[in-house]
């Protein structure tokens, strides 16, 4: 039969903080009323305000659920998710909307003067600066003779790039294998590709973990790689390499040994610890990238590979 689908809609116009906005979630068709609807705001469950069901002329069931979300100025990075489970489904139906799509934050305005605090003489020219802060979204609005000729919302996140910080750690397992964990932290946007290497040779078929969104809007992901060092006669070099968009790869390495505790190779990665990207931080990231490339090249030459 027809596969069930889900839709999630919000208000047609943006709303300022302090107001509640409705979201409607509809899913179906289902063979019975044995469905369950769950709302999530970020990772926390959110209560529904109403739920109803209906049937079509074929006797199939549809469910509609509504939720009210109270907006604050901090909701720019939040999401609302509708999740529907049913016996007909192999996995839940799910759809997510960003609250930034319905939020409008009025700017705070402040005017300053270059010679602030000094007495102004008659006919003296002064420079006044208007500061607009804490507003969302950024809107380009062009008028000609009181007629709007162009209007577009500018998404600043499409211009933002935060390179990841990559670290590797190890731990033992009951099976005797060494578990090497690669932690990729605070990057944006979320598109990345992770590769494990042993002795500087890439391993094929690496599973790509799903990034987890942080509260500040950046992303973090974690990948686990198991190594059997008991079969190795010498030290074993393991590297986690991360490709972030079209930027040079970022990586970190760990040297495992059968005779002693694993030794960590000092192979760092670029990436500021903050969730904002400035030109200074980006330039520093490029310098660190050069250092990483030199360090890893040295390690590979040391292994004669």
Provide structural commentary.
InterPro entries: Ig-like_CS_Receptor, Ig-like_dom, Ig-like_dom_sf, Ig-like_fold, Ig_C1-set. This is Ig-like domain-containing protein. This protein has 305 residues and is mainly beta. It folds into two domains: 5-101, Immunoglobulin-like, CATH 2.60.40; 160-302, Immunoglobulins (Immunoglobulin-like), CATH 2.60.40.10. 8% of the residues lie in helices and 46% in strands. It is built from one helix and 21 strands. The chain has one helix at residues 279-302; strands spanning 5-9, 20-30, 35-41, 44-46, 50-55, 61-70, 79-86, 93-98, 108-113, 128-133, 138-144, 147-154, 165-172, 178-187, 192-198, 201-202, 212-213, 219-227, 236-244, 250-256, 263-265.
- At the first level of CATH, what is the class of the largest domain? Mainly Beta
Give the tally of β-strands. 21
Largest sheet: 5 strands, antiparallel
Given as residue ranges, the uncertain stretches (5+ residues, pLDDT < 50) are 260-299, 301-305
Give the number of domains. Answer: 2
Gross morphology: flat
Give the helices and strands as they follow along the chain. EEEEEEEEEEEEEEEEEEEEEH
Give the structural class: mainly beta
Residues in helices, as a percent range: under 10%
Taking all Cα atoms into account, the compactness measure Rg is: 27 Å
- Please name the fourth-level CATH homologous superfamily of the largest domain: Immunoglobulins
How many helices? The count is 1
Spatially, the strands of the biggest sheet line up as: 16-15-19-20-21
- Note the beta-strand portion: over 45%
Q: The CATH topology of the largest domain is what?
A: Immunoglobulin-like
Euclidean distance between termini CA atoms: 57 Å
CATH architecture descriptor text of the largest domain: Sandwich
Protein name: Ig-like domain-containing protein
Keywords: Disulfide bond, Glycoprotein, Membrane, Transmembrane, Transmembrane helix
InterPro entries: Ig-like_CS_Receptor, Ig-like_dom, Ig-like_dom_sf, Ig-like_fold, Ig_C1-set
Domain Ig-like: 4-98, 164-257
């Amino acid at each position: 039969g027809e596969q069930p689908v889900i839709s999630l809609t919000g208000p047609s116009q943006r709303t300022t903080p302090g107001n509640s906005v409705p979201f409607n979630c509809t899913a179906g068709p289902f063979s019975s009323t044995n469905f369950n609807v769950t709302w999530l705001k970020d990772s926390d469950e959110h209560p529904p305000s109403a739920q109803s069901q209906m049937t079509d002329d074929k006797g199939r069931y549809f469910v509609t659920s509504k939720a009210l979300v109270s907006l604050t100025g901090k909701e720019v990075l939040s999401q609302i998710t509708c999740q529907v489970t049913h016996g007909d489904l192999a996995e839940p139906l799910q759809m997510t909307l960003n609250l930034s799509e319905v939020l409008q934050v009025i700017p705070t305005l402040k005017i300053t003067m270059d010679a602030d605090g000094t007495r102004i003489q008659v006919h003296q020219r002064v420079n006044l600066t208007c500061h607009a802060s804490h507003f969302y979204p950024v809107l380009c609005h062009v008028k000609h003779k009181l007629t709007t000729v162009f209007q577009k919302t500018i998404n600043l996140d499409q211009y933002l790039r935060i390179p990841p910080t990559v670290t590797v750690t190890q731990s033992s397992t009951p099976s005797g294998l060494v578990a090497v964990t690669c932690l990729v932290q605070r990057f944006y946007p979320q598109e990345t590709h992770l590769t494990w290497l042993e002795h500087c040779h890439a391993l094929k078929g690496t599973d790509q973990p799903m990034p987890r969104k942080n509260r500040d809007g950046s992303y973090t992901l974690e990948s686990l790689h198991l190594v059997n060092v008991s079969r190795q006669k010498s030290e074993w070099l393991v590297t986690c390499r991360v490709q972030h968009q079209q930027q040079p790869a970022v990586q970190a390495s760990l040297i495992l040994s059968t005779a002693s505790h694993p030794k960590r190779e000092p192979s760092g990665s670029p990436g500021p610890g903050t969730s904002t990207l400035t030109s200074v931080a980006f330039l520093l990231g490029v310098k660190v990238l050069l250092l990483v490339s030199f360090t890893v090249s040295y390690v590979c030459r040391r292994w004669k590979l």
